């Protein structure tokens, strides 16, 4: 077995040159500050400063040449750049919208010319064709609504060549798109039938009473409004802000889809509008909804059966470590588990709720004999889970525990740790890091967790531990943006271990502290840092930056260092920073040079 990360020491060799620039609110307070073409760095010693000056002088020349070349890009080159991060997603979305338009158009024409609905068209005019056309599109949507949430199915497809064509990492986004199409065409279908009910009330001389009876007493009307009630509640609690603020409400309300589907099946069995000649439909007719639901429904049911089977596997918590900033590390032993670095799992604790499964990224490497997750306890479920495991965030840690990054939680006498059920692991964007020779890993706060698994796996491969082959990665850039370094001390030993074994300099670690630092503390850090081989704060050879990254310089540096390489950019964190990185990946992608492929964690 390999030695523990916490016991690994690191080499005290000279610091490596930085590939990134530094800009921050306190940068002007440093007197040891070279300036080259208006760029500012927080230098660590004279050797590094000289290397940086030479590096930036070279980068400036190459950057000017690259900028001049980018202005001459033709439409073919622009199309190649567009295809890197946008092409497959935009084309897929366009084809999806085109499919809806064509299906709706063909359905309109079909019901306008079909010879056994002459009476219906003469009675209701365009209302009949629009309602039937919208229903036909809804049947197409129901085929696809469940596939994106079948995570085992998606994980299998990600390992096929289809992953290079279809955006499987956007499965939840696609699920939302299908849902909004169901809302849209349900609205069109309902409006059309409101006019139908009004015309029927006029034809039967029942007035407003008849209109209300057609809406709420007839089979099609009653089932339709039940479906709308279920759909409205699901959509309301699935909105991004409400879902994040009250996940339990989202989770339970989303199971109203069962009522929605049952209502849909019954809705078409009442046959309010009959054809002109046989075969006539009747209340005993099964309907057609089930035919469209069957493909996705069978896969979804098999996924739920597989979840229950996995829940019966021998699974137990082997270790619980309480870290600062309300972060809880949970190590789990589970039989029959095959995983890859960058994947995630769903955890259920029946003691809290038998029905709730919550996603967490794996922080353990495939080479380890356990799976682990790091949970930031900020919500109702996570706090309840931490309490059930015996964690006490109100108590203070000893200096020795703080030095080791946390304290091991021991269960009280005569108490057994609660049972957990694990579903997964499932594939994610970060799983594709082995496809590239150069990768940029960006984590924000607790969003660093997916990269713990990746960095551990790289560490094991560099040391030839485990069954995995040595990685083909030639360069790894790791950027961690946090408010204060103490907020994730559990990550310290891993970074030190990885840096110590990185003899070939294939991994660059850059930590950015965004919390405001007063002038006295900054001067104290600079004094302690003079002539030091390691950073004063992190004890790493890589220096700590203060402020936020200058992403233009980050991407420009990588593009110039790796001009003919595909670089994978993997991110986990807030949506705002995700948009910035996505934009930078597109901006600095060159059709004949470095191409940045952006990927974000989605649960």
UniProtKB/TrEMBL annotation:
<keyword id="KW-1133">Transmembrane helix</keyword>
<dbReference type="InterPro" id="IPR013112">
    <property type="entry name" value="FAD-bd_8"/>
</dbReference>
<feature type="region of interest" description="Disordered">
    <location>
        <begin position="21"/>
        <end position="42"/>
    </location>
</feature>
<feature type="transmembrane region" description="Helical">
    <location>
        <begin position="251"/>
        <end position="270"/>
    </location>
</feature>
<dbReference type="Pfam" id="PF08030">
    <property type="entry name" value="NAD_binding_6"/>
</dbReference>
<dbReference type="InterPro" id="IPR013121">
    <property type="entry name" value="Fe_red_NAD-bd_6"/>
</dbReference>
<dbReference type="InterPro" id="IPR013130">
    <property type="entry name" value="Fe3_Rdtase_TM_dom"/>
</dbReference>
<feature type="transmembrane region" description="Helical">
    <location>
        <begin position="222"/>
        <end position="239"/>
    </location>
</feature>
<keyword id="KW-0479">Metal-binding</keyword>
<dbReference type="Pfam" id="PF01794">
    <property type="entry name" value="Ferric_reduct"/>
</dbReference>
<dbReference type="GO" id="GO:0006811">
    <property type="term" value="P:monoatomic ion transport"/>
</dbReference>
<keyword id="KW-0406">Ion transport</keyword>
<feature type="transmembrane region" description="Helical">
    <location>
        <begin position="178"/>
        <end position="202"/>
    </location>
</feature>
<keyword id="KW-0349">Heme</keyword>
<feature type="compositionally biased region" description="Polar residues">
    <location>
        <begin position="23"/>
        <end position="42"/>
    </location>
</feature>
<dbReference type="GO" id="GO:0042554">
    <property type="term" value="P:superoxide anion generation"/>
</dbReference>
<dbReference type="GO" id="GO:0046872">
    <property type="term" value="F:metal ion binding"/>
</dbReference>
<dbReference type="Pfam" id="PF08022">
    <property type="entry name" value="FAD_binding_8"/>
</dbReference>
<dbReference type="GO" id="GO:0016175">
    <property type="term" value="F:superoxide-generating NAD(P)H oxidase activity"/>
</dbReference>
<dbReference type="InterPro" id="IPR017938">
    <property type="entry name" value="Riboflavin_synthase-like_b-brl"/>
</dbReference>
<dbReference type="GO" id="GO:0006952">
    <property type="term" value="P:defense response"/>
</dbReference>
<feature type="domain" description="FAD-binding FR-type">
    <location>
        <begin position="304"/>
        <end position="432"/>
    </location>
</feature>
<keyword id="KW-0813">Transport</keyword>
<feature type="transmembrane region" description="Helical">
    <location>
        <begin position="133"/>
        <end position="157"/>
    </location>
</feature>
<keyword id="KW-0560">Oxidoreductase</keyword>
<feature type="transmembrane region" description="Helical">
    <location>
        <begin position="91"/>
        <end position="113"/>
    </location>
</feature>
<dbReference type="InterPro" id="IPR017927">
    <property type="entry name" value="FAD-bd_FR_type"/>
</dbReference>
<protein>
    <recommendedName>
        <fullName>FAD-binding FR-type domain-containing protein</fullName>
    </recommendedName>
</protein>
<dbReference type="GO" id="GO:0043020">
    <property type="term" value="C:NADPH oxidase complex"/>
</dbReference>
<keyword id="KW-0812">Transmembrane</keyword>
<keyword id="KW-0472">Membrane</keyword>
<dbReference type="InterPro" id="IPR000778">
    <property type="entry name" value="Cyt_b245_heavy_chain"/>
</dbReference>
<keyword id="KW-0249">Electron transport</keyword>
<dbReference type="InterPro" id="IPR050369">
    <property type="entry name" value="RBOH/FRE"/>
</dbReference>
<dbReference type="InterPro" id="IPR039261">
    <property type="entry name" value="FNR_nucleotide-bd"/>
</dbReference>
<keyword id="KW-0408">Iron</keyword>
């Amino acid at each position: 077995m390999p030695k523990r990360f916490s016991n690994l020491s690191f080499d005290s060799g000279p610091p490596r040159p930085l590939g990134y620039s530094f800009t921050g609110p306190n940068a002007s307070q440093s007197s040891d500050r070279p300036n080259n073409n208006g760029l500012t760095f927080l230098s660590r010693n004279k050797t590094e400063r000289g290397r940086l000056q030479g590096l930036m002088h070279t980068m400036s020349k190459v950057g000017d040449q690259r900028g001049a070349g980018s202005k001459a890009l033709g439409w073919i080159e622009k199309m190649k750049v567009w295809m890197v991060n946008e092409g497959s997603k935009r084309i897929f979305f366009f084809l999806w919208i085109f499919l809806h338009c064509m299906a709706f158009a063909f359905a309109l024409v079909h019901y306008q010319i079909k010879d056994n609905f002459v009476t219906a068209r003469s009675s209701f005019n365009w209302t009949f064709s629009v309602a039937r056309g919208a229903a036909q599109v809804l049947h197409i949507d129901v085929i696809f609504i469940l596939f994106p949430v079948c995570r085992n199915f998606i994980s299998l497809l990600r390992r096929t060549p289809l992953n290079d064509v279809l955006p499987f990492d956007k499965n939840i986004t696609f699920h939302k798109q299908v849902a909004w199409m169901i809302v849209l065409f349900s609205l069109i279908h309902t409006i059309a039938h409101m006019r139908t009910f009004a015309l029927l009330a006029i034809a039967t001389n029942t007035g407003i009473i008849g209109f209300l009876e057609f809406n709420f007493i007839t089979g099609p009307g009653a089932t339709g409004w039940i479906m709308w009630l279920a759909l409205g509640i699901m959509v309301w609690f699935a909105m991004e802000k409400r879902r994040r603020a009250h996940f339990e409400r989202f989770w339970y309300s989303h199971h109203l889809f069962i009522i929605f589907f049952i209502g849909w099946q019954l809705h078409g069995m009442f046959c309010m509008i009959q054809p002109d000649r046989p075969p006539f439909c009747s209340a005993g007719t099964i309907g057609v909804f089930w035919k469209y639901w069957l493909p996705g429904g069978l896969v979804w049911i098999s996924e739920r059966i597989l979840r229950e089977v996995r829940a019966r596997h021998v699974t137990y918590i082997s270790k619980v470590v309480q870290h600062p900033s309300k972060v809880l590390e949970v190590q789990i032993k589970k039989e029959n588990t095959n995983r890859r670095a960058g994947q995630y799992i769903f955890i259920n604790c029946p003691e809290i709720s038998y029905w709730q499964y919550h996603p967490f990224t794996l922080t353990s490497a495939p080479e380890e004999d356990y799976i682990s997750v790091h949970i930031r306890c900020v919500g109702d479920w996570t706090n309840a889970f931490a309490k059930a495991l015996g964690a006490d965030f109100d108590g203070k840690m000893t200096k020795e525990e703080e030095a080791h990054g946390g304290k091991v939680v021991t269960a009280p006498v005569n108490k057994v740790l609660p049972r957990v059920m694990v579903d997964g692991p499932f594939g994610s964007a970060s799983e594709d890091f082995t496809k590239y020779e150069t990768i940029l890993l960006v984590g924000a706060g607790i969003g660093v967790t997916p990269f713990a698994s990746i960095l551990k796996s790289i560490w094991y491969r560099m040391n030839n531990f485990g069954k995995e082959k040595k990685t083909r990665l030639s360069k790894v850039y790791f950027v961690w943006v946090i408010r204060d370094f103490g907020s994730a001390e559990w990550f310290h030993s891993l970074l030190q271990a990885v840096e110590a074994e990185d003899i070939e300099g294939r991994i660059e670690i850059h930590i950015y502290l965004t919390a405001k630092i007063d002038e006295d503390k900054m001067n104290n850090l600079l004094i302690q840092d003079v002539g030091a081989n390691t950073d004063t704060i992190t004890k790493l050879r890589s220096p700590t930056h203060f402020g936020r990254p200058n992403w233009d310089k980050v991407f420009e540096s990588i593009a110039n260092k790796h001009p003919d390489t595909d670089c994978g950019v993997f991110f986990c964190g807030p949506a705002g920073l995700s948009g910035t990185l996505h934009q930078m990946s597109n901006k600095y992608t060159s059709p004949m040079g470095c191409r940045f492929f952006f990927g974000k964690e989605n649960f």
